[in-house]
Every structure is written in structure tokens, then in C-alpha cells.
Amino acid sequence: MNAHEIDYQIYGEEMQYVEIELDPQEAVVAEAGSFMMMDSNIKMSTIFGDGSNQDNSVLGKIFSAGKRILTGESLFMTAYLNEGQGKKQVSFASPYPGKIVPIDLSEKQGKFICQKDAFLCAAKGVSVGIEFSKRLGRGLFGGEGFIMQKLEGDGMAFVHAGGTLARKELAPGEVLKVDTGCIVGFTKDVDYDIEFVGGIRNTIFGGEGLFFASLRGPGVVYIQSLPFSRLASRVWAAAPKGGGRNKGEGSILGGLGDVLDGDKPF
């Protein structure tokens, strides 16, 4: 195997974390901000690019890091190497409520395509790159631009899904239509495109956006019930504006309740 062979255990229900067990000289790479805890004798180091070791030249490392800029990620990733004598553990946490999905790339024909913010961590040796869209509709209206992330190699990778996770196995020619933000990822053989919802009433009054994703099998698709963008928009909509309390908070009388509470003048 090119990637390090790691063991793992996922803990929790709604706010999960994954514990990676490293043998001596084994390593795992992760995005900044996902670290939770680790044993002693694990060395943490910042690496340029994704640490896949596919091209150790300076130009190769610069190109690897440049690909990460295109997906909106940092130039650097963090590697955690077990320099001790026995097995050691390092853990990474979910960024918001949802599920951590283990992806064995050796069982996915060496490639998995995912939303750019879904990747959590992976065995060192897994390549974290970009997947360019060759279709204009997907690039303009897919919610991810012309690019998504692709994970390549033969090791374990871990992605995060918001809310409840659905796993759909599509037969050849079978089509699944999904909100673009609800896609976590899919296997390499799934054909992915963007379609217009259609209909004047749907377009104006539907409230679900103008486009959805069309996923055609064969392959496996992972769907999330709570994309971070949807969670953030709901929180923003409910947040008090101008530093005051939210209208009607704690009272069924709405604005009148604020007056009675002394928060608003008559």
C-alpha cells in the first residue's frame, strides 16, 4: 500500500469524533482546526500541500499546494506522526453536528469525490486534490464552482456530513435528484450534473432554489440532511439585528412582549 495503514474508532452520536490509532512511524494528515487530542510521542508538523509524496520536487509541492488554494483551503496541512515505540492515538472532531463517514479508498477504486469542506483527515499518502467540472452548467450553478475535492489513493479517509447521513447505492442508469448543498460525496463512476427546476411557480415561489443536482449511477452517493450553508443561513436569519433581542423571543406576543419586558419604549 502507498498510504499508511491506520486503525480507527468513531465515537459519539450527534457531535462525533474519530480516534486514529497509529503504529510506530505511521502518520495521519488533517485539515487545520479539526484536531481534538493526542497521546504523547506524537509529533505534529505543518506540511506544504497534502503530504501524498507523489512528487517530492519543489515544483511538485508547489503545484500540490496550489491545488488546495483553488478549493479555498489553506496552503498547509498538519501531519501527526507516531515517534514512540507502541501504539498511540490522535483524535479529530466534527466541526458541527452530523456524522463522520469513513471512506476506504481501496474499496472505492482509488478515488472519491466530495464537497470541498467535507474532508476531515486521512492516512498519510492519500492525495487531496481537485476535481474539475467539464460541464458549464455544473460549474456555474453547482454551488461549488468548477471544482470539487477528490481523494485518491489506497488508504482510509474521513469526511464529515451535517445532520443525518443517507447512503444511496445507484444501479446503472438510476438517477437521484438532490439539493446541491446536500451532496457529501460520491464514487468515481457517478455522473454528476446540474438541472434547472423548471416551471414559473416553482422558480418564483418554490423556495428551494432554481437548480438541483442530478446523480446518475452506477455508484454510491452520500447525502447530508443539514449542509453547513443551510445551518448558517438559519442561524443568521434568527439572530437579533442591531445588537438587540430577537423579536418575540420568549413571548408569544412578539413585539408587544418586548414592550412589556421594557426592551422597547411605547
UniProtKB/TrEMBL annotation:
Pfam families per record: AIM24
This protein's name: TIGR00266 family protein
Organism field: Lentiprolixibacter aurantiacus
